[in-house]
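Can't paste images in this forum, so I'm doing it all in text. The chain is below; anyone willing to post the predicted structure tokens underneath?
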Amino acid sequence: MLQKLIPAPVCFIMKLTLRKSHDRGHADHGWLDTRHTFSFAGYHDPRHMGFRSLRVINQDFIAPGAGFPTHPHRDMEIFSYVVEGSIGHQDSMGNGRTLLPGQIQLMSAGSGVTHSEFNPSQTEPLHLLQIWILPEFRGLPPSYTEWHPDPDRERDPKVLVISRDGRDGSATIHQDADVYRIRLTPGQTASHALNAGRGAWFQLIQGTVSVNGTPLEPGDAVSTEDSGDLSIIAGSAAEGLLFDLK
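Text version of the structure:
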């Protein structure tokens, strides 16, 4: 009797691309020590010009009392995520704010805006991530908003902080992009389902994790354009940002 052969199930492995911290661009200006994930200013690498709509991830360490003087931007969604210290912000829309660790300021430069960012402390350094995302449309009216953590969700491993529709209390952005804060205790896991046709970038800020078995140290990142499930497991207390991009 002939037996019908049943094909074995195909095991699909999500492909991850690793971007090591020490491979990033680096500049030390004395008052500013910065790492560039993608080409920026004097750092140019044709292999790293951005990822989908994500154009800039700069990890900045700013000395006490120093900062970026007033300068222009246009047609870019720009946000700063404060890791340590505090950041002072002033812009041509009349906003003047100081933000603390875990808080986010989001500025849509649109048709044109000027702003400055500085470390208001005379004693403590400032550590932050500055991130630029391309907008869906050019020439939008400039705008400014903030995201502050909800004390009731501080222990959540994964929190939506930026989205196009502002759901779940997130700040709004003019792009089909979801940004999540990942904050894990040792051994804790955060999961994310990436749909077909989208890409994910995970930037580790502090601590150690493994993403689908790939180990990451502070400043490392992984990206993928394969649909499937991402599993981020902390080896030590960890913090990072996860981008889900069209």
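The radius of gyration is 19 Å. The domain at 17-245 is CATH 2.60.120.10 (Jelly Rolls).
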